[in-house]
């Protein structure tokens, strides 16, 4: 692959860094799969590949995103809603990673 945008990292990065073509770039913008990774660093320098960390925005982009949020122009997908006193159950569902959308806690 030429370029990968990854918000999972973890074992995905460990196992799949070899998918990058010569001179390819892996952009990491999250760590849903775990923040600790282990891979053969020779893959980087022997194949002229790059791994870049990115928060995926500039201050200008962030301002645009905040305007979109303030004006409610995007409606998020909600997977589940929990009262605050069920935070352990919400965290358990989050940890299962089999949901689609956001898990919401209400005070």
Outline the fold blueprint:
Elements: E1 3-6, H1 11-16, E2 25-28, H2 42-46, E3 50-53, H3 59-70, E4 78-83, H4 87-96, E5 102-106
Parallel strand pairs: 1-2, 2-3, 4-5
What does this structure look like?
With 107 residues, the protein is of the alpha/beta class. 31% of the residues lie in helices and 21% in strands. The chain has 4 helices and 5 strands. It has helices at residues 11-16, 42-46, 59-70, 87-96; strands at residues 3-6, 25-28, 50-53, 78-83, 102-106. The chain has a 3-stranded parallel β-sheet, with no helix packed on it. Strands 4-5 form a two-stranded parallel ribbon. Helix 4 (87-96) links the parallel strand 4 (78-83) and strand 5 (102-106). The longest helix is centred in the middle third of the chain and has 12 residues, at 59-70. 6% of the residues are buried.
Report the helical percentage.
25-40%
**Which shape, going by the Cα principal axes?**
flat
Mean pLDDT: 89
Number of helices: 4
Enumerate the strands of the largest sheet in spatial order, edge to edge or round the barrel. Answer: 1-2-3
Provide the structure class: alpha/beta
Assembly type: single chain
Order of helices and strands: EHEHEHEHE
Largest sheet descriptor: 3 strands, parallel
Question: What's the count of strands?
Answer: 5
Strand proportion: 15-25%
Instruction: Report how far apart the termini are.
Output: 45 Å
Rg calc: 18 Å
Low-confidence stretches: none
Q: What does this entry show, briefly?
A:
The chain is an alpha/beta fold.
List keywords for this structure.
flat, alpha/beta, single chain, 3-stranded parallel sheet, two-stranded parallel ribbon, 5 strands, 4 helices, 107 residues
